[in-house]
């Protein structure tokens, strides 16, 4: 067979040479190249600076600055404090500083920091916050203690309220100043306040005064999430002029009260200490509420106390979650009607679950998804005063999916499964999760893992109707 001629049009050596010369990406406009780089992690996008002179600062025009280093966070757990502070943490801060100093774009969409950073890094973090606000950031997230299991090791980072022109005299002084003279913060910082849509602060100490100032001066701020602030005591979200739609307050140990009045809030989550003053009034758009109150390892909340706080909006709720709050059951109390509820999350002691479950299903005729967190009974199961009582029979047509978290394979819990298969006539799926690991970031012990395997073995022996998808995680 004749060898192909060099004139035949496919000399491989020449074709390789031709392909190596053509650099179509470098020929594209900067806007397109920046758009391509935006799909890479920030570290990788920054590394493209070595490709050529033209690429040296292309990455510096990125509008999404996500300083996320999950791999580094995992390595921190095994390091001693001195190694941690002098090594990875300082290198992380240096990296963020270098990006902030070299950035060239006139504005940014997102600025996200996620690393173990405390008060000792205040000078650097203050500069980052100022940079983000000057650039008209839309999403600002400071996640400063993501990996720690139990609690803060060092004092938290205080939010730099001086950037907003606020002193430390409290809300009254700040509010009078705002009403009389208007904001006194720098004009360039004011740009960020006008653009800010999402504010997420984890382990950042911020007061209710400063949060309220954000709500009043940020015309498009729709999402606020605060986690682990030791200086948040009281928060008021008042007035239809506030743009806030979604509010999350978690693990803020000193909170004593939250008021949401005459506002257009759609969803509200509170996860923290028990017994706070919660006022929800004239919130016509509020359709999702999550309440998790904690008292050491468990929280106990009377049903009537809970629904007294929700009385003004309970009939309009579509999602109600109480996953870590064990509700006291009182036979004399009638759960109010929840006519629009689609998703319900509950926590029960296993010896009271059936009685409470029946009450909630009766009051929630349209609920489609149900999540139940089961807790061991603190009292002796043999002496349980609900032992010989049966749940009221009812028929539920809309319930399609159920998840049981913390399932232990006890007789009472098996009764819950049977009750649901008989009550929910159109039930399609039951998911069993034997893990009891919802307590705050506490690692599993070996005996707990062995117990979970025993529960899974017990699960395989349960019999449910064949038309129901029965799953064990």
From TrEMBL:
It comes from the Eukaryota. Coiled coil: none annotated. Gene3D superfamilies: 1.20.1280.50, Ribonuclease Inhibitor. Residues 28-69 form the F-box domain. PANTHER family: FBD DOMAIN-CONTAINING PROTEIN, OS02G0105600 PROTEIN. This is Putative F-box domain, leucine-rich repeat domain, L domain-containing protein. It comes from Rosa chinensis.
């Amino acid at each position: 067979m004749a060898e192909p001629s060099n004139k035949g049009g496919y000399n491989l050596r020449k074709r390789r040479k031709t392909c190596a010369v053509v650099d179509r990406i470098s020929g594209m406009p900067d806007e397109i190249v920046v758009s391509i780089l935006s799909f890479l992690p920030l570290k990788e996008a920054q590394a493209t600076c070595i490709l050529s002179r033209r690429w040296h600062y292309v990455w510096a025009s990125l509008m999404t600055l996500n300083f996320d280093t999950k791999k580094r966070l995992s390595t921190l757990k095994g390091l001693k404090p001195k190694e941690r502070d002098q090594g990875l943490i300082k290198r992380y801060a240096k990296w963020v500083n270098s990006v902030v100093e070299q950035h060239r774009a006139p504005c940014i969409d997102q600025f996200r920091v996620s690393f173990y950073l405390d008060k000792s890094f205040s000078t650097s973090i203050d500069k980052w916050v100022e940079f983000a606000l000057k650039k008209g950031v839309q999403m600002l997230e400071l996640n400063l203690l993501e990996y720690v299991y139990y609690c803060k090791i060092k004092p938290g980072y205080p939010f730099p309220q001086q950037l907003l022109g606020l002193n430390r005299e409290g809300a009254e002084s700040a509010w009078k100043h705002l009403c009389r003279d208007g904001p006194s913060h720098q004009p360039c910082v004011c740009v960020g306040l006008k653009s800010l849509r999402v504010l997420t602060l984890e382990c950042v100490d911020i007061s209710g005064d400063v949060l309220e100032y954000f709500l009043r001066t940020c015309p498009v701020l729709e999402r606020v999430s605060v986690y682990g602030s030791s200086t948040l005591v009281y928060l008021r979200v008042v007035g239809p002029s506030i743009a806030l739609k979604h509010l999350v307050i978690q693990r803020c140990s000193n909170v004593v009260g939250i008021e949401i009045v005459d506002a257009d809030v759609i969803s509200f989550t509170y996860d923290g200490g028990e017994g706070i003053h919660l006022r929800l009034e004239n919130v016509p758009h509020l359709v999702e509420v999550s309440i998790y109150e904690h008292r050491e390892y468990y929280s106990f909340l009377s049903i009537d106390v809970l629904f007294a706080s929700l009385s003004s909006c309970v009939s309009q709720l579509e999602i109600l979650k109480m996953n870590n709050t064990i509700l006291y059951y009182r036979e004399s109390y009638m759960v109010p009607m929840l006519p629009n509820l689609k998703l319900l999350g509950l926590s029960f002691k296993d010896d009271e679950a059936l009685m409470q479950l029946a009450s909630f299903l009766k009051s929630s005729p349209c609920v489609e998804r149900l999540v139940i967190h089961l807790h061991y009974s603190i009292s002796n199961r043999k002496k349980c005063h609900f032992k010989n009582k049966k749940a009221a029979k009812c028929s539920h047509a809309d319930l399609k999916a159920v998840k049981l978290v913390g399932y232990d394979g006890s007789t009472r819990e098996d009764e819950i499964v049977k009750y649901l298969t008989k009550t929910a006539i159109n039930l399609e799926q039951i998911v069993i999760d034997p893990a009891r690991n919802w307590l705050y970031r506490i690692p599993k012990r070996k005996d707990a893992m062995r117990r979970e395997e025993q529960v899974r073995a017990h699960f395989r022996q349960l019999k449910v109707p064949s038309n129901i998808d029965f799953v064990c995680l």
